[in-house]
Recover the amino acids of this structure.
């Protein structure tokens, strides 16, 4: 019998595995206020899923802060976020655990591919008890370019030793969907947290858009590859 082809599932974190958007928004709002800028819901929607250096340059322009100041401001925001997450608690979104288990049973290799700092990812993985599913975690520190550039997902697929055309990305943001498709990967988009409407996720190129990952099984993922 021929060996089953190896597939990879690469998961975004915020808005896909967990919903910590309001914690991020509050942290950005507080940090921006300290340096004399408001932070609006439109700002949040425009930058969600991107790396902190890119977000800060988008918010303040290219010349407002030097590289060290950008790094310090980003870390200040993340410290606020982690403190709030630790105090509030974080749980997986509906359908996440059952899909992780189903993909594991179907021999998918799984990774996290996120624009967030590694400390954030480690905290959330520990709090949710999901570490056993993710031998590979790719964070902001592992990339030089943020979504919609595909680098984060390409690095994850490479570390899983799976070709891009055998990989599926699970995302909730337009920039993330664009990154997956730019990397030659399948993409399942979930609209549960409501950052981006279904129409925009489809327009970005998502192969499947669902209101909740409760609607997705390992078999439905395999069908994307004709399996």
């Amino acid at each position: 019998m021929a060996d089953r082809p190896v597939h990879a599932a690469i998961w975004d974190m915020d808005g896909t595995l967990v919903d910590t958007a309001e914690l991020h928004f509050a942290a950005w709002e507080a940090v921006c206020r300290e340096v004399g800028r408001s932070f609006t819901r439109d700002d949040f929607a425009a930058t969600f899923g991107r790396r902190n250096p890119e977000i800060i340059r988008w918010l303040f322009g290219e010349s407002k802060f030097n590289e060290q100041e950008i790094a310090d401001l980003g870390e200040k925001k993340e410290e606020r976020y982690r403190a709030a997450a630790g105090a509030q608690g974080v749980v997986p979104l509906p359908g996440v655990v059952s899909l992780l288990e189903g993909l594991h049973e179907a021999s998918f290799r799984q990774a996290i591919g996120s624009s967030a700092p590694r400390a954030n990812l480690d905290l959330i993985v520990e709090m949710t008890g999901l570490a056993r599913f993710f031998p590979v975690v790719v964070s902001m520190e592992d990339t030089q370019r943020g979504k919609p550039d595909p680098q984060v997902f390409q690095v994850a697929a490479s570390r899983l030793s799976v070709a891009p055309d055998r990989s599926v990305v699970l995302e909730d943001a337009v920039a993330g969907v664009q990154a997956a498709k730019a990397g030659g990967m399948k993409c399942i988009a979930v609209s549960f947290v409501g950052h981006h409407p279904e129409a925009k996720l489809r327009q970005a190129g998502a192969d499947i858009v669902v209101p909740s990952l409760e609607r997705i099984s390992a078999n439905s993922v395999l069908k994307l590859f004709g399996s």
Q: What stands out?
A: The chain has two domains: 8-18+91-223, 21-88. The chain has ten helices and six strands. The domain at 8-18+91-223 is CATH 3.40.50.1000 (Rossmann fold).
